[in-house]
Amino acid sequence: MKQLQQATVAIVGLGLMGGSLAAALRARGSVRRLVGIARRAETVAEATARGFIDEGTCDPIAGASGADVVIFGTPVQTTLALLTALGPYFRSGTIVSDMGSTKVAVLDAMSRLPSEIHPFGGHPMCGKEIAGLSAADADLFLDKVYVLTPVERTSSDALQTMQALAEAIGARSLVLDPARHDRLVAAISHLPYILATCLVAAAEDMATEDPLVWELAASGFRDTSRLAVSDTTMMRDILLTNEENVLYLIDLFGRRLTEMSADLAQRDTERLTHLMSSVRQRREGLFR
User: Fold this and answer.
1) What total number of domains does the chain contain?
2) Residue 91 has what DSSP assignment?
3) Which of 73, 121, 257, 274 sits a CA distance of 20 to 30 A from 133?
4) 29: how many CB neighbours lie within 10 A of its CB?
């Protein structure tokens, strides 16, 4: 297996995540050759013009078949379909990875790839609510956690290569079991999106009674609803491939909401203050 610096890396999907990965690898000279694969010729042209890739194509077979490492930066359902379509065309020894926010479904599909392929789930814990190549940022991964989820057949060489890739873009690699990953991100990524979406929907309901609500919306509403503008296709695929964990977290949140509602209805000052104070302390310690 080639060292990362001598490898040809193909990135399938040149949106925010794929484009940022290409930009980061190119800016740091971390690989020998970068191939970008996108649905639209305009995207390939833009990535080439910005110097993110050495070459690009709209043909995923042509782009991926000669690579040492293939990384999917596409929505999860698209990744699942492409893994099936491209499986026979990966050359022996290729590391096949992804950047999606759910891992069990992806690694299940990867496990059906030919035996000489090295499957490797990946999930950089970063992003923006803005989608598309125009939002790509070479520094997106700096000091962020890059979760790596190997499977039993994944070689130690493949693990070292993916750890080197994470380090090359300024991230910190963390090896996790795929199922554990999906449980954890349901709490800190998928549930927050649902809450932001339902918050805007509830305000929309209020606006049918009094549209002035939108004129009063300021920084608090802006910050808490930010995730509601995330890419719809990406988030739909995430929710549908992590349904069990997401439903469990919705249930947990529902219990908390019911408890707080009861405390408020009963004007239980002590319980309300205890909850708000303990949560404030936890939140203040998270992002110092």
Assistant:
1) 2
2) P
3) 121
4) 9
Clarify whether residues 269 and 158 are in a common domain. no
Flag whether pLDDT at 97 surpasses 70: yes
In angstroms, the CA 174 to CA 126 distance is 14
Q: Assess contact for 140 and 20: CB atoms under 8 A.
A: yes
- DSSP lists the bridge partners of residue 96 as 70, 119
pLDDT at 1: 60
> Per residue in 62-96, pLDDT tens?
999 999 999 999 999 999 999 999 999 999 999 99
Q: Are residues 222 and 147 in the same domain?
A: no
Q: Are residues 53 and 192 in the same domain?
A: no
Neighbour count for residue 117 (Cβ, 10 Å)? 21
Task: Measure the CA–CA gap between 11 and 76, rounded to whole angstroms.
Answer: 14
CA–CA separation, 262 and 203 (whole Å) = 22
Q: Write down the pTM of the prediction.
A: 0.92
**Total residue count of the chain as it appears in this document:** 288
Same domain, 132 and 254: no
Q: 242-246 — which CB contacts under 8 Å span 24+ positions?
A: 242/101, 242/102, 242/104, 242/105, 242/182, 242/185, 242/186, 242/190, 245/182, 245/183, 245/186, 245/190, 246/186, 246/190, 246/191, 246/194
Q: Which domain holds residue 38?
A: 4-176
- Which CATH number covers residue 20? 3.40.50.720
Domain boundary (155, 176, 197) is at 176
**56 and 85 share a domain?**
yes
What's the CA gap between 252 and 258, in Å, rounded?
A: 10
- Residue 2 confidence class, pLDDT cut points 50, 70, 90: confident
